[in-house]
Specification:
By secondary structure, the chain is an alpha/beta fold. The chain folds into 2 domains: about 100 residues, no CATH class; about 220 residues, Spore Coat Polysaccharide Biosynthesis Protein SpsA, Chain A, CATH 3.90.550. Helices cover about 50% and strands about 10% of the residues. The protein is built from 12 helices and 9 strands. Helix 1 packs across helix 10.
Length: about 375
């Protein structure tokens, strides 16, 4: 039994070191591509909103007032029961570049969740270049559109942006931001290694032709989530994806304030995992499984007092690599003060994986809100 546990521990540590020391380190030390000079290609910003009156009041002016010569903002009011419609009507009187698409509560839907609303918005979008965000998204600058557009040029038809959360003084907020960075490291690294598998729907740019040629979300229309990750896995390839790490391109959101709400959100996001391509399942599964087995075997060895010196030495070596790679990556994403939290939150991910495992099996949720 001792030999078996030690084998699991060293094997899982080796896999973890491959990911952090080889795969993720490339993102940590990545030098952004030089973007093209600012261009004036028209852009359609698409936002889906269901019962978002408060967020629209706060965030929509920031989008509508972007410094860009030719853009429209298409907001899809998805069967809202609050004052979302009234808020949008008010904004339409102020801003000529705002168009509203309204979905009735009794309208027959051809696909699940947010995808139906998003498909309506994309279909109504006038321009070829689409920029997607959420009603709760707040652009970090008025140059968000112009700076994002600079990276979409030539063969690069898809741009993956970053969507951080506003900082607040709570353990939950810190963990959410920690996990958001962790996820960003994964999908940015995958794009750099030319095996892109996802982006985040609150900050994503791509050409409409990709949506049309892929027949939109048809291949996973019955899945509640996946308008960003499943769609990206279908249309992204080694040559047509790039990433943007400029702070002026970030889209900030408010993080969940209770562990229950956060769990529901992550459960919904992770429910698409079972629909990923096999190669993506293997890459992400090996990362999560090795992380889980590393801490499971580590705790077993410590509790049983087995090979303590070697166990701690391997733990500290992995932690050192994690400090360097995660710390440098966080700095690249303009996130600070996470170094001291890395050991605690890295262990917390062990529990996080256990709690969210059912989402990977269920493959669906009830609501996109």
């Amino acid at each position: 039994m001792t030999t078996f546990i030690l084998y699991i521990y060293f094997a899982s540590a080796a896999v973890q070191l491959i990911y952090w020391g080889l795969i993720f380190s490339r993102f940590a030390f990545y030098r952004s591509e030089q973007p093209e000079p600012k261009s004036e290609e028209p852009v359609s910003v698409v936002i889906c909103a269901r019962n978002e009156e408060a967020n629209l009041q706060k965030n929509l002016p920031r989008v509508l007032e972007q410094v860009y010569p030719d853009f429209e903002v298409v907001v899809v009011n998805d069967a809202s029961t609050d004052k979302t419609g009234e808020v949008l009507e008010g904004f339409q009187k102020q801003y000529s570049n705002l168009r509203v698409v309204t979905i009735g509560q009794d309208e027959v839907r051809t696909m699940q969740g947010k995808k139906y609303a998003l498909s309506k918005g994309i279909e109504q979008a006038v321009h070829e270049l689409l920029l997607l965000t959420d009603a709760d998204g707040y652009p970090s600058s008025l140059d968000w559109i112009s700076e994002m557009k600079r990276f979409v040029t030539g063969k690069k038809e898809i741009l993956l942006g970053y969507g951080p959360y506003f900082e607040k003084k709570s353990i939950l907020n810190k963990f959410i931001r920690f996990e958001t960075i962790y996820t960003a490291i994964q999908y940015f690294s995958a794009a750099i290694w030319k095996v892109p598998y996802m982006g985040v729907g609150r900050n994503l740019m791509y050409r409409k032709i990709l949506y049309v040629e892929n027949q939109g979300f048809k291949n996973h229309s019955e899945v509640m989530s996946g308008d960003d990750d499943l769609f990206m896995s279908e249309v992204a390839n080694a040559d047509n994806v790039t990433i943007c790490l400029e702070k002026s391109c970030f889209i900030y959101s408010e993080a969940k304030e209770t562990w229950t709400d956060y769990y529901k959100q992550k459960y919904r996001h992770n429910s698409t995992g079972s629909y990923y391509k096999t190669k993506h399942k293997i890459l992400l599964g090996a990362l999560s499984l090795s992380h889980f087995l590393f801490y499971l075997s580590f705790l077993s060895l410590i509790i049983l007092h087995l090979s303590i010196v070697n166990t701690i030495a391997v733990y500290l070596f992995r932690l050192t690599v994690l400090f360097v790679v995660y710390g440098k990556s966080a700095k690249k994403l303009q996130e600070k003060h996470f170094t001291i939290w890395i050991p605690f939150f890295d262990f917390l991910l062990f529990i996080y994986f256990i709690m969210l495992a059912p989402a990977l099996v269920s493959g669906n949720t009830k609501s996109w809100e």
